[in-house]
Amino acid sequence: MTVNLTPTQILTGTAVLLAVFVVWRWSARKARRAADAARASSRVVSLAGRVLFTGAGFTGVQWLVLTHVHNPTLVLVVLGVPDLIAAYVLTRALTVTSMDTVSTRRRGGGRR
């Protein structure tokens, strides 16, 4: 069986394959950007949940100690330790330790 294709048919087939490849690459890049955006937003939601949970825990322990214990040293410890933890967390959060931006990524994804 022989296939006889005209130059126009070959050119049209090549153009269609090229168009499919370009659309595939474009959709892959768009999907990657959407995944990066979803990952970034889930980090924010996860952080907010952890902050609220920890804050509720600190508040509950402080309330229990302040209402049921009359030892001044224990009251100072219960009020002071969360302040130290909050100061440490804020210092770590506000100190830039790495560049986590899109502009610093290399193409290809590997280490060089």
What does this structure look like?
There is one protein chain. The chain has helices at 7-68, 72-94. The chain is an all-alpha fold.
Low-confidence stretches: none
Number of helices: 2
- β-strand number: 0
Relative strand content: under 5%
In terms of structural class, how would the helical and strand content be classed? mainly alpha
The ordered string of helix (H) and strand (E) elements is: HH
Shape: rod-shaped
| CA-based gyration radius | 29 Å
Indicate the percent of residues in helices. Answer: over 70%
Straight-line N-to-C gap: 51 Å
Write down the overall mean pLDDT: 81
Please give the largest β-sheet: none
Please outline what is shown here.
This protein is an all-alpha fold and 112 residues long. It has helices spanning 7-68, 72-94.
Strand and helix layout:
Elements: H1 7-68, H2 72-94
Helix pairs in contact: 1-2
Features:
112 residues; mainly alpha; rod-shaped
